[in-house]
Give the backbone structure.
Amino acid sequence: QVQLVESGGGLVQAGGSLRLSCAASGGTFSTYGMGWFRQAPGKEREFVGGINWGGGSTYYEDSVKGRFTISRDNAKNTVYLQMNSMKPEDTAVYYCAAKKWATASKQEYTYWGQGTQVTVSS
C-alpha cells in the first residue's frame, strides 16, 4: 500500500509561482509512474501531467504546457509540480497519484493523495 501526501499549496498572485510536493511511502517509489490532477469547484477532475517510473519522460496537458514542470527525486520519494506564470484558472485542489510501472501519459492510477488547495488571485 502506497501513501501519498501533497504539500505546498497556498495563495499566489497571477503570474506567480508555486511548487507542490508529493511525498510517497509504503512502496518502492522508483517503480511508480506519477501523475498530477486538479479539480476546480464545480468541475470534473482533470489530468495535468505525469512522469514515468524511470523519470525520463514527462507529459503535460495543453493547458499547462510550457508553464508547469513535473520532476521526481527518487532518493526523497517525492514528485514535484513546479507551477510558473500562474493564472486564476489554475485555481483548484491538486492531487498526485501513483501507478506501478506507469508511463507519463494519463493512467488509471492506483493510489491517490488527499489533495492540496491552490488559489491564484487576479
